[in-house]
User: Fold Fructan beta-fructosidase from Donghicola tyrosinivorans.
Amino acid sequence: MTETYRPKLHFTPAKGWMNDPNGMIRHGGLWHLFFQHDPNSIHHGPMHWGHAVSRDLVHWQERPVALYPDALGTCFSGSAIAAPQGVKLFYTAHSLTPEGRDFQVQCVAHANDTLTQFQTDTRNPVLENPGREVFRDPKVIWHQDTARWIMLVTEGQSIAFYASEDLRRWEYLSSFGACHGQHGKGVWECPDLLEMRYQGKAFWVLIVSISEDAPGGGSGTQYFIGAFDGTRFTNVNPAEAVLWLDMGRDFYAPQSFFDPGGPPTVMAWASNWSYARQTPTKAFRGAASLPRELSLTRSPDGLRIAQRVPEAVRNAFANQRDRATFHHGFHLEAEGARDVTVSLFGETVPHLRLTRGTDDVVTLTSRRPDHDGLTGFGHEVITRFTWPLSRPLDIELFVDRGLVEMFCAGGTVSLTNLHFPAVPEGPVTLTHHASGTRRAVPRHLSEGGHNG
Ligand code: FRU
Assistant:
Protein backbone atom coordinates (compact mmCIF):
# COMPACT_ATOMS: atom_id res chain seq x y z
CA MET A 1 0.00 0.00 0.00
CA THR A 2 2.84 2.42 0.72
CA GLU A 3 4.86 3.66 -2.15
CA THR A 4 7.10 6.67 -2.54
CA TYR A 5 4.57 9.00 -4.07
CA ARG A 6 1.41 7.89 -2.33
CA PRO A 7 0.19 10.82 -0.23
CA LYS A 8 -0.85 10.11 3.36
CA LEU A 9 -3.67 12.56 3.94
CA HIS A 10 -5.11 12.73 0.45
CA PHE A 11 -7.40 10.04 -0.87
CA THR A 12 -5.88 7.63 -3.38
CA PRO A 13 -7.37 4.34 -4.57
CA ALA A 14 -5.56 1.26 -3.23
CA LYS A 15 -4.98 0.15 -6.78
CA GLY A 16 -5.83 1.28 -10.27
CA TRP A 17 -6.47 4.56 -11.97
CA MET A 18 -8.50 7.50 -10.67
CA ASN A 19 -9.50 10.81 -12.17
CA ASP A 20 -12.48 13.06 -11.38
CA PRO A 21 -14.35 12.92 -8.09
CA ASN A 22 -17.96 11.93 -8.80
CA GLY A 23 -21.27 11.58 -7.02
CA MET A 24 -20.16 13.36 -3.91
CA ILE A 25 -22.78 13.36 -1.20
CA ARG A 26 -23.02 13.60 2.57
CA HIS A 27 -25.48 10.96 3.65
CA GLY A 28 -26.17 8.97 6.80
CA GLY A 29 -23.30 10.58 8.70
CA LEU A 30 -20.76 9.75 6.00
CA TRP A 31 -19.07 11.69 3.25
CA HIS A 32 -19.29 9.64 0.09
CA LEU A 33 -16.72 10.13 -2.61
CA PHE A 34 -17.19 8.29 -5.88
CA PHE A 35 -14.56 8.71 -8.54
CA GLN A 36 -13.61 7.90 -12.12
CA HIS A 37 -11.82 4.63 -11.76
CA ASP A 38 -10.26 1.77 -13.65
CA PRO A 39 -9.76 -0.86 -10.96
CA ASN A 40 -7.86 -3.12 -13.34
CA SER A 41 -5.06 -0.88 -14.54
CA ILE A 42 -3.33 2.39 -13.83
CA HIS A 43 -4.54 3.78 -17.14
CA HIS A 44 -7.67 5.63 -18.15
CA GLY A 45 -9.35 2.41 -19.29
CA PRO A 46 -13.05 1.51 -19.17
CA MET A 47 -14.43 3.86 -16.57
CA HIS A 48 -16.14 2.55 -13.44
CA TRP A 49 -17.23 4.56 -10.43
CA GLY A 50 -14.97 3.78 -7.49
CA HIS A 51 -16.32 4.57 -4.04
CA ALA A 52 -14.88 5.64 -0.70
CA VAL A 53 -16.40 6.95 2.53
CA SER A 54 -15.19 9.10 5.38
CA ARG A 55 -16.57 10.23 8.73
CA ASP A 56 -14.27 13.21 9.07
CA LEU A 57 -12.94 14.04 5.58
CA VAL A 58 -9.54 12.85 6.82
CA HIS A 59 -9.67 9.04 6.88
CA TRP A 60 -11.09 7.43 3.78
CA GLN A 61 -12.18 3.86 3.52
CA GLU A 62 -12.49 2.40 0.07
CA ARG A 63 -15.62 0.44 -0.70
CA PRO A 64 -16.37 -1.92 -3.60
CA VAL A 65 -16.76 -0.43 -7.05
CA ALA A 66 -20.22 1.16 -7.34
CA LEU A 67 -20.85 1.39 -11.09
CA TYR A 68 -19.63 -0.92 -13.84
CA PRO A 69 -19.67 -0.41 -17.59
CA ASP A 70 -22.79 -1.92 -19.19
CA ALA A 71 -24.44 -2.20 -22.60
CA LEU A 72 -24.84 1.60 -22.80
CA GLY A 73 -21.16 2.22 -22.26
CA THR A 74 -18.56 3.01 -19.64
CA CYS A 75 -19.40 5.28 -16.69
CA PHE A 76 -18.12 8.80 -17.08
CA SER A 77 -18.41 11.60 -14.52
CA GLY A 78 -21.55 12.68 -12.73
CA SER A 79 -23.13 13.55 -9.43
CA ALA A 80 -25.39 12.34 -6.62
CA ILE A 81 -28.51 13.67 -4.92
CA ALA A 82 -30.68 12.62 -2.01
CA ALA A 83 -34.23 12.84 -3.39
CA PRO A 84 -37.42 11.91 -1.52
CA GLN A 85 -37.33 8.69 -3.56
CA GLY A 86 -33.80 7.89 -2.32
CA VAL A 87 -30.21 8.53 -3.35
CA LYS A 88 -29.62 8.71 -7.11
CA LEU A 89 -26.38 8.74 -9.04
CA PHE A 90 -26.40 10.56 -12.37
CA TYR A 91 -23.59 9.65 -14.74
CA THR A 92 -22.69 9.69 -18.40
CA ALA A 93 -22.69 6.45 -20.33
CA HIS A 94 -19.88 6.80 -22.82
CA SER A 95 -19.54 4.66 -25.93
CA LEU A 96 -18.07 4.89 -29.41
CA THR A 97 -19.99 5.02 -32.66
CA PRO A 98 -19.03 2.61 -35.46
CA GLU A 99 -17.01 5.52 -36.90
CA GLY A 100 -15.11 5.79 -33.64
CA ARG A 101 -16.71 8.99 -32.40
CA ASP A 102 -17.63 9.62 -28.77
CA PHE A 103 -21.27 9.07 -27.97
CA GLN A 104 -22.57 10.21 -24.59
CA VAL A 105 -25.96 10.03 -22.85
CA GLN A 106 -27.04 10.73 -19.27
CA CYS A 107 -28.10 7.84 -17.05
CA VAL A 108 -29.26 7.26 -13.50
CA ALA A 109 -28.55 4.58 -10.90
CA HIS A 110 -30.55 4.06 -7.72
CA ALA A 111 -28.77 3.46 -4.42
CA ASN A 112 -30.07 1.76 -1.29
CA ASP A 113 -30.08 3.88 1.85
CA THR A 114 -26.67 2.76 3.06
CA LEU A 115 -25.17 3.35 -0.39
CA THR A 116 -23.91 -0.20 -0.53
CA GLN A 117 -25.98 -1.30 -3.53
CA PHE A 118 -26.51 0.44 -6.83
CA GLN A 119 -28.97 -0.44 -9.53
CA THR A 120 -28.82 1.22 -12.92
CA ASP A 121 -32.24 2.19 -14.21
CA THR A 122 -33.69 -0.16 -16.83
CA ARG A 123 -35.07 2.86 -18.70
CA ASN A 124 -31.67 4.51 -19.17
CA PRO A 125 -30.74 6.87 -20.64
CA VAL A 126 -32.72 9.59 -18.87
CA LEU A 127 -31.37 12.22 -21.21
CA GLU A 128 -30.74 11.42 -24.86
CA ASN A 129 -27.94 12.97 -26.85
CA PRO A 130 -29.17 15.96 -28.86
CA GLY A 131 -26.52 15.39 -31.54
CA ARG A 132 -23.38 16.57 -29.84
CA GLU A 133 -20.01 14.90 -29.62
CA VAL A 134 -19.41 16.30 -26.12
CA PHE A 135 -22.45 15.85 -23.89
CA ARG A 136 -21.52 14.70 -20.42
CA ASP A 137 -20.84 15.16 -16.71
CA PRO A 138 -24.39 15.67 -15.36
CA LYS A 139 -24.44 17.67 -12.14
CA VAL A 140 -27.89 17.65 -10.55
CA ILE A 141 -28.92 20.18 -7.91
CA TRP A 142 -32.17 21.15 -6.23
CA HIS A 143 -33.45 24.63 -7.08
CA GLN A 144 -35.56 25.78 -4.18
CA ASP A 145 -37.24 28.81 -5.76
CA THR A 146 -38.70 26.92 -8.69
CA ALA A 147 -38.97 23.62 -6.76
CA ARG A 148 -37.31 21.65 -9.56
CA TRP A 149 -34.20 19.64 -10.12
CA ILE A 150 -31.66 21.27 -12.40
CA MET A 151 -29.14 19.27 -14.41
CA LEU A 152 -26.00 20.86 -15.82
CA VAL A 153 -24.30 19.10 -18.71
CA THR A 154 -21.28 20.16 -20.73
CA GLU A 155 -21.83 20.69 -24.45
CA GLY A 156 -18.15 21.21 -25.27
CA GLN A 157 -17.64 24.93 -24.96
CA SER A 158 -20.79 25.77 -23.07
CA ILE A 159 -22.89 24.40 -20.24
CA ALA A 160 -26.50 23.34 -20.86
CA PHE A 161 -29.14 23.60 -18.15
CA TYR A 162 -32.09 21.18 -17.97
CA ALA A 163 -34.96 21.00 -15.46
CA SER A 164 -37.10 18.17 -14.13
CA GLU A 165 -39.78 17.69 -11.51
CA ASP A 166 -39.69 13.90 -11.47
CA LEU A 167 -36.01 13.24 -12.25
CA ARG A 168 -37.12 11.39 -15.37
CA ARG A 169 -38.33 13.92 -17.95
CA TRP A 170 -35.73 16.63 -18.50
CA GLU A 171 -36.57 19.86 -20.27
CA TYR A 172 -33.85 21.95 -21.94
CA LEU A 173 -33.67 25.47 -20.48
CA SER A 174 -30.65 27.39 -21.70
CA SER A 175 -26.92 27.32 -22.31
CA PHE A 176 -24.16 29.47 -20.88
CA GLY A 177 -20.67 29.91 -22.18
CA ALA A 178 -20.35 31.62 -25.52
CA CYS A 179 -17.76 34.41 -25.16
CA HIS A 180 -17.56 34.03 -21.37
CA GLY A 181 -14.37 33.15 -19.55
CA GLN A 182 -11.60 30.98 -20.93
CA HIS A 183 -12.14 28.91 -24.07
CA GLY A 184 -8.91 28.41 -26.01
CA LYS A 185 -8.54 24.91 -27.37
CA GLY A 186 -10.07 23.38 -24.30
CA VAL A 187 -13.27 21.44 -23.76
CA TRP A 188 -15.46 22.59 -20.89
CA GLU A 189 -16.05 19.71 -18.48
CA CYS A 190 -17.52 18.86 -15.10
CA PRO A 191 -19.77 21.84 -14.33
CA ASP A 192 -21.07 22.60 -10.84
CA LEU A 193 -23.49 25.26 -9.63
CA LEU A 194 -23.50 26.53 -6.06
CA GLU A 195 -25.72 28.99 -4.30
CA MET A 196 -23.57 31.14 -2.04
CA ARG A 197 -24.20 34.22 0.04
CA TYR A 198 -22.15 37.31 0.51
CA GLN A 199 -23.34 39.73 3.17
CA GLY A 200 -26.83 38.33 2.98
CA LYS A 201 -27.08 38.58 -0.79
CA ALA A 202 -27.45 35.38 -2.82
CA PHE A 203 -25.11 34.65 -5.71
CA TRP A 204 -24.75 31.59 -7.89
CA VAL A 205 -21.30 30.33 -8.69
CA LEU A 206 -20.76 28.24 -11.79
CA ILE A 207 -17.62 26.13 -11.72
CA VAL A 208 -16.31 24.83 -15.04
CA SER A 209 -13.17 22.84 -15.72
CA ILE A 210 -11.36 23.35 -19.01
CA SER A 211 -9.23 20.61 -20.53
CA GLU A 212 -6.57 22.87 -22.05
CA ASP A 213 -5.24 26.41 -21.87
CA ALA A 214 -5.45 26.84 -18.12
CA PRO A 215 -2.93 29.32 -16.61
CA GLY A 216 -0.10 26.84 -16.16
CA GLY A 217 -0.84 24.91 -19.33
CA GLY A 218 -3.08 21.89 -19.73
CA SER A 219 -6.25 21.51 -17.70
CA GLY A 220 -7.60 23.77 -14.97
CA THR A 221 -10.71 25.15 -13.32
CA GLN A 222 -12.45 28.46 -13.82
CA TYR A 223 -15.52 29.91 -12.15
CA PHE A 224 -18.17 32.51 -12.82
CA ILE A 225 -20.08 34.52 -10.24
CA GLY A 226 -23.60 35.43 -11.18
CA ALA A 227 -27.30 34.82 -10.85
CA PHE A 228 -29.44 31.82 -11.67
CA ASP A 229 -33.20 32.29 -11.90
CA GLY A 230 -34.07 28.64 -12.40
CA THR A 231 -33.75 28.94 -16.16
CA ARG A 232 -30.69 30.93 -17.05
CA PHE A 233 -27.28 31.74 -15.58
CA THR A 234 -26.04 35.32 -15.93
CA ASN A 235 -22.49 36.42 -15.24
CA VAL A 236 -22.04 39.53 -13.06
CA ASN A 237 -18.52 40.07 -14.36
CA PRO A 238 -17.53 41.20 -17.86
CA ALA A 239 -17.61 38.25 -20.28
CA GLU A 240 -13.85 38.42 -20.84
CA ALA A 241 -12.99 38.20 -17.13
CA VAL A 242 -11.46 34.85 -16.23
CA LEU A 243 -11.44 33.73 -12.61
CA TRP A 244 -9.37 30.65 -11.81
CA LEU A 245 -10.16 28.49 -8.85
CA ASP A 246 -6.56 27.34 -8.65
CA MET A 247 -3.37 28.64 -10.24
CA GLY A 248 -1.47 25.37 -10.16
CA ARG A 249 -1.54 22.55 -12.64
CA ASP A 250 -3.13 19.89 -10.51
CA PHE A 251 -6.62 20.88 -9.49
CA TYR A 252 -9.17 19.59 -11.94
CA ALA A 253 -12.84 18.68 -12.13
CA PRO A 254 -13.74 19.79 -8.59
CA GLN A 255 -17.21 18.91 -7.44
CA SER A 256 -19.21 19.87 -4.36
CA PHE A 257 -20.81 17.39 -1.99
CA PHE A 258 -24.59 17.27 -2.08
CA ASP A 259 -25.07 18.51 1.48
CA PRO A 260 -27.96 20.94 1.81
CA GLY A 261 -27.29 23.39 4.61
CA GLY A 262 -23.57 22.67 4.87
CA PRO A 263 -20.89 25.02 3.57
CA PRO A 264 -20.10 24.18 -0.07
CA THR A 265 -17.25 21.68 0.13
CA VAL A 266 -15.39 20.53 -2.95
CA MET A 267 -12.72 18.02 -3.82
CA ALA A 268 -10.87 17.85 -7.12
CA TRP A 269 -8.66 15.47 -9.00
CA ALA A 270 -5.06 16.43 -8.27
CA SER A 271 -3.63 15.94 -11.74
CA ASN A 272 -3.61 17.37 -15.24
CA TRP A 273 -4.64 15.70 -18.48
CA SER A 274 -1.38 16.79 -20.11
CA TYR A 275 0.64 14.21 -18.11
CA ALA A 276 -1.87 12.35 -15.92
CA ARG A 277 -1.27 9.13 -17.80
CA GLN A 278 2.49 9.20 -17.17
CA THR A 279 2.94 10.04 -13.51
CA PRO A 280 5.49 7.68 -11.90
CA THR A 281 3.38 5.71 -9.42
CA LYS A 282 3.05 1.94 -9.40
CA ALA A 283 -0.02 0.37 -7.84
CA PHE A 284 -2.29 3.37 -8.29
CA ARG A 285 -2.38 6.52 -10.37
CA GLY A 286 -4.25 9.69 -9.39
CA ALA A 287 -5.26 11.34 -6.12
CA ALA A 288 -8.04 13.56 -4.86
CA SER A 289 -7.23 17.05 -3.61
CA LEU A 290 -7.90 17.93 -0.01
CA PRO A 291 -11.50 18.95 0.61
CA ARG A 292 -11.99 22.70 0.57
CA GLU A 293 -14.82 24.79 1.95
CA LEU A 294 -15.78 27.64 -0.31
CA SER A 295 -17.14 31.04 0.62
CA LEU A 296 -17.52 34.36 -1.15
CA THR A 297 -15.37 37.21 -0.02
CA ARG A 298 -14.60 40.73 -1.15
CA SER A 299 -10.91 40.69 -2.07
CA PRO A 300 -9.17 43.91 -3.16
CA ASP A 301 -9.69 42.65 -6.75
CA GLY A 302 -13.44 42.15 -6.36
CA LEU A 303 -15.83 39.44 -5.26
CA ARG A 304 -13.97 36.12 -5.20
CA ILE A 305 -14.18 32.59 -3.91
CA ALA A 306 -12.11 31.97 -0.80
CA GLN A 307 -11.07 28.40 -0.07
CA ARG A 308 -10.30 26.88 3.26
CA VAL A 309 -9.28 23.36 4.18
CA PRO A 310 -11.77 22.09 6.81
CA GLU A 311 -10.75 22.08 10.46
CA ALA A 312 -10.50 18.29 10.81
CA VAL A 313 -8.08 18.10 7.90
CA ARG A 314 -6.03 21.01 9.20
CA ASN A 315 -5.78 19.27 12.56
CA ALA A 316 -4.70 16.05 10.92
CA PHE A 317 -1.84 17.88 9.23
CA ALA A 318 -0.94 19.68 12.45
CA ASN A 319 -0.91 16.43 14.41
CA GLN A 320 1.51 14.67 12.15
CA ARG A 321 4.64 13.87 14.14
CA ASP A 322 6.66 13.71 11.00
CA ARG A 323 7.10 17.40 10.46
CA ALA A 324 9.45 16.88 7.57
CA THR A 325 6.56 15.49 5.64
CA PHE A 326 3.73 17.78 6.61
CA HIS A 327 3.80 21.49 7.09
CA HIS A 328 0.56 22.86 8.18
CA GLY A 329 -0.89 26.25 8.41
CA PHE A 330 2.04 28.48 8.94
CA HIS A 331 1.06 32.07 8.91
CA LEU A 332 3.88 34.01 7.44
CA GLU A 333 3.73 37.67 8.10
CA ALA A 334 5.91 38.92 5.36
CA GLU A 335 5.69 42.51 6.50
CA GLY A 336 8.88 44.26 5.61
CA ALA A 337 10.11 41.32 3.61
CA ARG A 338 9.32 42.12 0.03
CA ASP A 339 10.16 38.81 -1.42
CA VAL A 340 9.66 35.38 0.03
CA THR A 341 10.64 32.14 -1.65
CA VAL A 342 9.65 28.64 -0.70
CA SER A 343 11.71 25.62 -1.67
CA LEU A 344 10.29 22.18 -1.21
CA PHE A 345 11.78 18.77 -0.46
CA GLY A 346 15.19 20.12 0.43
CA GLU A 347 15.74 21.17 -3.17
CA THR A 348 17.54 24.39 -3.95
CA VAL A 349 15.18 25.62 -6.66
CA PRO A 350 12.61 28.11 -5.40
CA HIS A 351 9.26 26.50 -6.13
CA LEU A 352 7.22 29.50 -5.06
CA ARG A 353 8.05 33.16 -4.90
CA LEU A 354 5.85 35.92 -3.56
CA THR A 355 6.95 39.43 -4.37
CA ARG A 356 5.24 42.47 -2.93
CA GLY A 357 5.42 45.51 -5.13
CA THR A 358 5.28 49.06 -3.81
CA ASP A 359 1.75 49.41 -5.15
CA ASP A 360 -0.13 46.68 -3.26
CA VAL A 361 0.32 44.24 -6.13
CA VAL A 362 1.66 40.82 -5.19
CA THR A 363 3.32 38.67 -7.82
CA LEU A 364 3.17 34.96 -7.23
CA THR A 365 5.52 32.86 -9.29
CA SER A 366 5.31 29.13 -9.16
CA ARG A 367 8.02 27.07 -10.77
CA ARG A 368 8.17 23.35 -11.00
CA PRO A 369 11.07 21.62 -12.68
CA ASP A 370 10.49 18.85 -15.18
CA HIS A 371 10.62 15.39 -13.77
CA ASP A 372 12.68 12.64 -15.37
CA GLY A 373 10.60 10.93 -17.98
CA LEU A 374 7.58 13.14 -17.48
CA THR A 375 7.05 15.37 -20.49
CA GLY A 376 5.03 18.55 -20.28
CA PHE A 377 5.31 18.44 -16.52
CA GLY A 378 7.50 21.50 -16.00
CA HIS A 379 5.40 24.38 -14.89
CA GLU A 380 5.75 28.08 -14.49
CA VAL A 381 2.91 30.39 -13.76
CA ILE A 382 3.04 34.03 -12.81
CA THR A 383 -0.07 35.50 -11.30
CA ARG A 384 -0.73 38.91 -9.83
CA PHE A 385 -3.25 39.93 -7.22
CA THR A 386 -3.85 42.94 -5.05
CA TRP A 387 -3.13 42.80 -1.33
CA PRO A 388 -2.59 45.95 0.73
CA LEU A 389 1.01 46.43 1.79
CA SER A 390 -0.26 47.33 5.22
CA ARG A 391 -1.80 43.90 5.62
CA PRO A 392 0.26 40.80 6.47
CA LEU A 393 0.05 38.22 3.78
CA ASP A 394 -1.06 34.83 4.98
CA ILE A 395 0.39 31.74 3.37
CA GLU A 396 -0.56 28.17 4.07
CA LEU A 397 1.12 25.11 2.67
CA PHE A 398 -0.15 21.57 2.91
CA VAL A 399 2.67 19.31 1.83
CA ASP A 400 1.84 15.62 1.64
CA ARG A 401 4.64 13.67 0.01
CA GLY A 402 4.81 15.21 -3.47
CA LEU A 403 1.35 16.73 -3.41
CA VAL A 404 1.42 20.39 -2.42
CA GLU A 405 -1.53 22.71 -1.91
CA MET A 406 -0.90 26.34 -1.17
CA PHE A 407 -3.35 29.06 -0.14
CA CYS A 408 -2.72 32.73 0.40
CA ALA A 409 -4.45 36.10 0.58
CA GLY A 410 -7.27 34.83 2.76
CA GLY A 411 -7.69 31.73 0.60
CA THR A 412 -8.53 33.76 -2.51
CA VAL A 413 -5.41 32.50 -4.25
CA SER A 414 -4.71 28.79 -4.32
CA LEU A 415 -2.15 26.70 -6.08
CA THR A 416 -2.00 22.92 -6.25
CA ASN A 417 0.93 21.07 -7.76
CA LEU A 418 2.19 17.53 -7.87
CA HIS A 419 5.90 16.93 -7.47
CA PHE A 420 7.95 13.79 -7.85
CA PRO A 421 11.18 14.80 -6.12
CA ALA A 422 14.03 12.48 -5.23
CA VAL A 423 13.08 12.74 -1.56
CA PRO A 424 9.39 13.58 -1.30
CA GLU A 425 9.65 14.07 2.45
CA GLY A 426 12.52 16.55 2.49
CA PRO A 427 12.28 19.90 4.31
CA VAL A 428 10.50 23.04 3.23
CA THR A 429 12.66 26.16 3.26
CA LEU A 430 11.47 29.73 3.42
CA THR A 431 13.79 32.54 2.50
CA HIS A 432 13.19 36.25 2.94
CA HIS A 433 15.03 38.17 0.29
CA ALA A 434 14.67 41.73 1.47
CA SER A 435 15.88 43.60 4.48
CA GLY A 436 13.12 44.19 6.93
CA THR A 437 11.49 42.60 9.87
CA ARG A 438 11.87 38.91 10.20
CA ARG A 439 8.61 37.51 11.44
CA ALA A 440 7.77 34.35 13.21
CA VAL A 441 8.50 31.30 11.18
CA PRO A 442 7.48 28.06 12.86
CA ARG A 443 10.43 26.12 14.15
CA HIS A 444 9.78 23.04 12.12
CA LEU A 445 10.51 25.01 9.00
CA SER A 446 14.13 25.44 8.24
CA GLU A 447 14.76 28.97 7.20
CA GLY A 448 17.49 30.49 5.11
CA GLY A 449 17.80 34.21 4.51
CA HIS A 450 19.92 36.83 2.93
CA ASN A 451 19.53 40.51 2.46
CA GLY A 452 19.04 42.46 -0.69
C1 FRU B 1 -12.82 15.21 -16.98
C2 FRU B 1 -13.40 14.11 -17.85
C3 FRU B 1 -14.90 14.20 -17.91
C4 FRU B 1 -15.28 12.80 -18.24
C5 FRU B 1 -14.28 11.99 -17.47
C6 FRU B 1 -13.89 10.71 -18.12
O1 FRU B 1 -11.58 14.91 -16.46
O2 FRU B 1 -12.83 14.18 -19.15
O3 FRU B 1 -15.38 15.17 -18.80
O4 FRU B 1 -16.60 12.50 -17.85
O5 FRU B 1 -13.14 12.81 -17.33
O6 FRU B 1 -13.11 9.94 -17.28
Observations:
- The longest helix spans residues 311-319.
- The chain has two domains: 3-279, 320-447.
